[in-house]
Amino acid sequence: MEVKSLVITGYGINCEEEVAAAYRLAGAIPEIVHLNDIFSGKVDIHSFHIINFPGGFSFGDDIASGKVLANKIKFQKLPDNSTLLDQLKKVLAEKKYILGICNGFQVLTRLGLLPNISGKFEQEVSLAHNIQGKFIDEWVTLKVPNAATPFIADMDTVELPIRHGEGRLIVLDEKIKHAVIDEKLNCLIYANNPNGSMLDCAGLTDRTGQVFGLMPHPEAFLSVYNHPDWGRRKKQGTINENGDGLKIFKNIVEAIPKNPL
Amino acid sequence: MNKNYHTIQVFLKETLEDRTGDKVGGLLKKHFSIDSGKIIKGKLYVITYPLSDKELTFFAEEGVSDKVLNYVKINLPLSQNGFQKCIVIAKLPGVTDDEGMSAQQSLFDMCELSSDSSLQHIFSQDIYLIEKDVPDLTLKTFAEDFLCNKLINHISRGSFESLSQPYIPEVKLAVDKSVEEIEIDLSDEELLRLSRNKLLSLDLEEMRAVKNYYLSDDTKKYRAENNLSVNPTDCELEIVAQTWSEHCKHKEFNAVIDYADESRNTSYRVNSLFKTYIKAATDVVQSALEKNGRYWLVKVFSDNAGIVKINNDNYFVWKVETHNSPSAIDPYGGAITGILGNNRDPLGTGIGGAKLLFNTNVLCFGPPSYSLPLLQGQLHPKRIFEGVRKGIEDGGNKSGIPTVNGSVIFDDRYSGKPLVYCGTGGVMPKKYLTKPTELKPISPGNKIVSIGGRVGKDGIHGATFSSREIDEHSPRSAVQIGSPIVQKIAGDFLRAACERGLIETTTDCGAGGLSSAIGELASISNGAVVRLENVLLKYSGLKPWEIFLSESQERMILVVSEDNLNEVLSLAKHLAVEAAVIGEFADTGRLTVLYNEKVVADIDIEFLHNGVPKKYLSAEWTEPEKIAADFPKQVNYNQLLTALMRCDAISSREYLIRQYDHEVKGKTIIKPLMGKLQNAPQDAAVVRVSFESYEGIAVSNGIMPKYVDIDPYNSSAGAFDEAIRQIIAIGGKLPLSGEQEDIFWSVNDNFCVPDSVYHPESNPDGKRKLAQLVQMCSALYDMSTFFSIPMTSGKDSMKNDFKSAGVKISVPPTVLYSAAAKIVDIRDTITGDFKSSGDLIYQVGATYNELGESELYKLLKLKDTAIPVVRMEGAKRVYKKMMEAASRKLLQSAHDISDGGMIVALAESCFGFDCGAEIVLESENELTIQSLLFSESHSRFVVSVNEKDRNTFEEIMLDDARMLGSVNDTGIIRVAHNNIEIINLQTEALHFAWSNGLTEQVI
Q1: Whole-angstrom Cα distance, residue B695 to residue B691?
Q2: Are the Cβ atoms of B661 and A231 closer than 8 angstroms?
Q3: Confidence check: pLDDT of B466 > 80
Q4: What is the DSSP-derived secondary structure letter of residue B764?
């Protein structure tokens, strides 16, 4: 069966091409779709297995990163008078998957899709400005404590670049914090916390494992030649042409249930 | 409370750590010795849209705040328990306020309101709450110097009571659609006064040419027949001034120059520097390439950017521009509009819609330690540095274009006017459906469609402004702030429309606004009619000529056939891009501008584009006196090397690099910093073209103004060499080097020079400055033709002087060469860091006693005129050997030698994993030890080679390489000279010095 992956773009999202490339390399069929094609009803998100919110600067990160886009998704009406958030909830009920990377992760937290402890899609965490008050582009090492979502199956550690100014995870209260820990939703952890994130959190999932959001960019490590130390690794002969980030996309393409849409 | 407006204040919850306030407090303490106590930063939204209480609360809680992070105050006065003072910073009327506009978008989404969403109803402002009673005057000075720019911001400060009414920056202009006629039959003196008063920046000859045109019988007859005034209208005069500005017409690069060199007893006449050197070089290269069956040079100098062929499907489009004058008065706005403006060049080349692949930036600033008193209107170099940095960050990051490399150089003479070079490369398919993309066809009847931002009073006179020196009276309207998000959305639409074959051609709307964009395109069809009433405005009240000349940002002009018009407009609407049909092209030979059918301008296109009189200039060169330095007998090389690593020229640029997204798009293969520790600086950047192939593009920059006073020719040739050798270092190949594949090279030359027109009082050394420029151009010709590397586009910026209070600060004549070259397979590229213990270290290329203006001599304050000279034959031989070594995969690493010489390059190569090196140097010939270590002779590399490849490598290199030693895992760099240890330093310690040199000063 062909796995169809929806890659959302428009309004300043800017990592759609590499996310689409990632799915192509992982054996799926990606389609890059402008948000307005969804809002106008031209494209039906239910004809895809995975919905992706790529990174970028939707609405220039104005007000707060992902904020304006999240509000569009929450409040703007589709032709059938529902909102895109209603449709995303339906996607989850259909046992499909949602991925948010960087700006996309910020959007998912603001929509209440992550971590969604209450089950009511209310915002429980947020991503604040990095503790240094600066944008950071650097590669970090991430630990995978458990495969709480199929996106990170069979992974132990992974190196990926972070490229954000607002990546410091803040949890609303102690109750939610404990629930995130207890239910093992803090599924991607910085080995050396680069931005002051609570729980050293770099990525979250929800209880079902269907929603995964992360600040680092797996789509930026599709080829080993993306890694800052590829030169030495190649000389040492420890090289595999695929980048470690590709594994996340391969994982989910493999995990899609083998049933037709 | 007055209900004409609402306010929402947003603050970070007190339980959350916020260092912004602490940073601001730190600045107050550092610069004003004032203890401000705690400072809290917040946001204020002033809303002039009528909202119910319910809507307002909903919007405050859901729209502009985040319940995890924030608390809000709705329609409450500014105040805070335990706090005494406050600063509120707003934008001035008409200044881009993206945050306000985004808030408004959210409001309309959330409350299902429909209003003209392009008119502004929400204004965002920054609040700083201050615990202690800091004097109002201090707050004002502090805000002006550290928090904002008074040219674009409004500052309120004081006690909470004094700030009870918010400032609302609504634009209120009286409607003025008048068209003025301007008397042109004037005396010379009056003509000059007219030029000055109207900020036309035209000289007497040019004003006379305008006068003669209007007084000629033909013009009089035409104007009478068409019921036009005898005198020019304000709009016509402005159009001529814009079209003839130095910025747009490059009059000095096209001038006739009499050049005299007394020391060599030669003199000659140059008829146009551009034609004689730059264009001629590319012509020579092109015929050499074509003689060898290479046809990758597609379009040069005639479009917004040069075009070369990557492969059978794609073109590479590449342009580098400068944005110096705006960056001097508003560094953030200047840099961001520079980048976004430069992005529009590749976007508007050929049919248009290229996919932008990377940005690069080269910056020339005054030193961070600059300590002279600041003149009126002069900003401290550190402030310029930080503002420009932020502009590049937002301009690149928010557009999703990686900033893949760059360079920063410091010199006192950039303290008045900085140089901000912005480069952008893009990929355009060779065809959109069946249309060849490199062409720019326009037929009469094609529609003129403007897309993107709206037009306001911003940036009027930008083109003429940049053609003058800056002084304390520089117009404020020249300042503008770019909006990356508006441009990103417009760019996405443009590409979609081009790919569907809906667009005939495109150009960007930059300096000179519609006047420049349409004026240039009209010369293709030989005519255009513009209807200004259809131009979308930010606010009413602009005069017709202001609409035509405004440089409001984020605009592109599309040429659309009547058949495609509806589809283009509906696609624009669907993708949330504002588009307006503002006229059509014609074949009348006239540029006609109408406002509600009234003729605002009607100019002969031939006169407009070819009527500017030629300039005649003089250049005079005398060789500077030779000086040889006395090198001290006893020096401590450990101390010297450590000091060099932390000096301004050499120290790490990591502070900048990490704040620029240099790998969005996932195609950056050689980044600015590489290695296990992500800390080894690299030479050229390498970017992949697509995910489907391993083809790539290498990008480098060469710039060496430090040699220009002693030897302008070699300052330019050296910069050209630097751009080449950086690409050779990463494994690039020269064109026509016997390789089978087509390997394009595409270079942008960018001259930024001081006023070089002689004037006995105001510019007594003008002839010398012009002579420097002539020599620099002549070096360009020699290097380009010798290496068969073509210029494909370029730019000149001629008046880089800052004048205030009778003082003039002029930049040194500066040329930047920005090179891009095809890489056949990015997997074969080479990084600069050493790879493993045991590898042998070589220096490739010859060292000379060339320490004049070296970083070593600057450190020791030694003056010497023996600066590095480019030896073209030797350089080419060395590069060919490097290419062979790379092809045979013998190079484990390669790093070019530049500032600081061989030992600095070697130390940098050790950084990637903190390895050590054991180096043994022997004196030979007349080379001194200081030259061996620190000379900055050109065309050299530090490379490492596996022991097993030693013989093969040495057979290729013969005398062009000398073994320096080997890589080890001690983490210590040891250098022995004639059996005496002269350097013994930990790599980590050198790295520490290198990392902190610049960072300590700028943060």
Answers
A1: 9
A2: no
A3: no
A4: T
What residue type is assigned to position A251 of the chain?
Answer: N
In 10 A of CB A148, how many CB atoms? 23
List of chain A residues with pLDDT < 50 = none
- What pLDDT, on a 0 to 100 scale, did the predictor assign at position B118? 66
User: Hey, where are the domains in chain A?
Assistant: 4-255
> Any CB–CB contact under 8 A between B836 and chain A?
yes
Could you give phi then psi for residue B655, rounded to 5 degrees? Answer: -55, -40
Q: The tokens of B171 are what?
A: 């634009």
- Which pair of structure tokens corresponds to residue A237? 């002969």
Q: What is the pLDDT of residues B872-910, one digit of tens each?
A: 999 999 999 999 999 999 999 999 999 999 999 999 999
Does A128 sit within 8 Å of B12, measured CB to CB?
yes
Q: Is B16 within 8 Å of A14 when comparing Cβ atoms?
A: no
- Report d(CA B854, CA B824) in Å as an integer: 35
How many residues are present in chain A?
261
**For residue A243, what is the nearest residue in chain B, using CA coordinates?**
B666
Q: Average of pLDDT values for B395-401?
A: 97
Decide if B675 and A228 are in contact by the 8 Å CB cutoff. yes
Catalytic residues of A: 102, 217, 219
Partners of residue B12 in chain A, C-beta under 8 Å: 128
Query: Do the strands B297-299 and A4-9 form a parallel or antiparallel pair, or are they unpaired?
Result: unpaired
- Domain A4-255, what architecture? 3-Layer(aba) Sandwich (3.40)
Q: How far is CA A239 from CA A235, A243, B195, B466, in A?
A: 9, 9, 67, 52
Other CB atoms within 10 A of residue B885 CB: 25
- Give the span between the Cα atoms of B323 and B319, in whole angstroms: 13
Please check whether residue A231 touches B, CB under 8 A.
yes
CA proximity to B259, closest of B712, B706, B627, B613: B712
- Which ipTM was obtained for this model? 0.96
Establish how many alpha carbons lie within 13 A of residue B454's alpha carbon, considering only the half-sphere containing its beta carbon: 20
B263 phi and psi, to 5 degrees?
A: -65, -30
Q: What is the per-residue pLDDT across A136-191, written as a single tens digit (0 to 9) for each?
A: 999 999 999 988 999 999 999 999 999 999 999 999 999 999 999 999 999 999 99
Residue A36: Cβ-neighbour burial (10 angstroms; 0-12, 13-18, 19+)? middle
Element (H, E) at B319: strand B314-322
pLDDT digits over B365-384, tens only?
999 999 999 998 899 999 99
Contact A134 B659 (CB under 8 A): yes
Distance from CA of B741 to the nearest CA of A (A): 22
Kind of pairing between the strands at B403-410 and B355-365: parallel
What is the reported pLDDT for B470? Answer: 57
Within an 8 Å CB–CB cutoff, is residue A131 touching chain B?
A: yes
Q: How far apart are CA B409 and CA B705, in angstroms?
A: 9
